[in-house]
What we know:
InterPro entries: Aldolase_TIM, DeoC, DeoC/FbaB/LacD_aldolase. Pfam families: DeoC. GO terms for molecular function: deoxyribose-phosphate aldolase activity. This is Deoxyribose-phosphate aldolase. It catalyses: 2-deoxy-D-ribose 5-phosphate = D-glyceraldehyde 3-phosphate + acetaldehyde. By secondary structure, this protein is an alpha/beta fold. It has one domain: TIM Barrel (Alpha-Beta Barrel). 48% of the residues lie in helices and 10% in strands. A seven-stranded parallel β-sheet has the order 1-2-3-4-5-6-7. It is globular, with a radius of gyration of 19 Å. 46% of the residues are buried.
Amino acid sequence: MGSILSGAEAASLVRALPGVDAVGLEARAAGLSTRSVKTTSKAQVIDLAISMIDLTTLEGADTPGKVRSLAAKAMRPDGDAPATAAVCVYPSMVAAAKDALQGSEVKVASVATGFPAGQVPLDVRLADTESAVRAGADEIDMVINRGAFLAGDLERVYQEIRAVKAAAGDARLKVILETGELATYDAVRRASWLAMYAGADFIKTSTGKVGVNATLPVTLLMMQAVRDYRAATGVQVGVKPAGGIRNTKDAVKYLVTVNEVLGDDWLSNEWFRFGASSLLNDLLMQRQKLKTGHYSGPDYVTVD
C-alpha cells in the first residue's frame, strides 16, 4: 500500500476479508494457553511483562497527587525491576504526569476522543486529542465510533481515525476497538484492518470499561492481523490487550502467544503493551518470590 487509501477503498478491502474460523481460532488460543516457560526464563519473562505495562488511572476522582504517585511507581516499581512502558491518564492529567516523569523513559499516554464511549461530535474528539498532545502526551489511546462501525459505515470510521491521527501529530496512536462490543470475530478482524489502513500505530482490544475486555482468542486474532498486515504492506503495528489481565500466569500466556505468532520483532514495549495496572502488583510479588523463595506479605506492594 504505497499510497493513502480513500475511505471507499479501505472499506472495500475490509469487507472483502475472509471470515474467521472461530473453532480453529479458539482451539489455537487454548493450545497456546497451556504453554509455559522454563523456571530459568521466568524472571526474564516477568521483567519483560513489567516493561510492557501501561500503568493506568482513569477515574473521575483522579488528582495530580494520585498521578504523581502512579508515575513514581511506574519509574521505580521495585528495587531493580524495570520501569513500565507508560503512564496512561485523562487529558486533564497529562501535564501532571509529564512533570512527574521528567527525565525518565516512561511515556505519557492519554485516552482521548470522548473515552470510553466516544459518543461526542468529531470536532470535540479532535479537540480532546489536540489538548492532550499540547500538554505533552507521547501517545494517544483513541476509541473508535462503534455505533458507526456496527451500522456498517466503515468509511466514516476510517476517516475519523485518520482525522485523529492527524490531530495526534507525532504522538503514537493506539486505536481501541472495544472488541467486547463488536460481538463477532469477523467484526474484530475488519475493525483491526480498518484501523491499520487508517494509520494506527497500535490496535488495542478494550477500554477496560465494559463487561468483556481482552481475551486470548481476540488478541490472537489481532496478532494475526498485524502479522498479515506487515506482510502485505511492510508496516509494523503494535498490539495492546487491555482489561482483565490480572496475574502473572495470564501475562505469560499472552507473551507466549506473541512469541509463537509474531516472534521477536514484537517482543518489546515498542510493539506490545498490557493495559492492566493491577497486573503489576502480581508480577512484583512473583518476582520477589523468585528472588527470595517466598511470597511477601500483603503490604509489600502499593494499592493503586
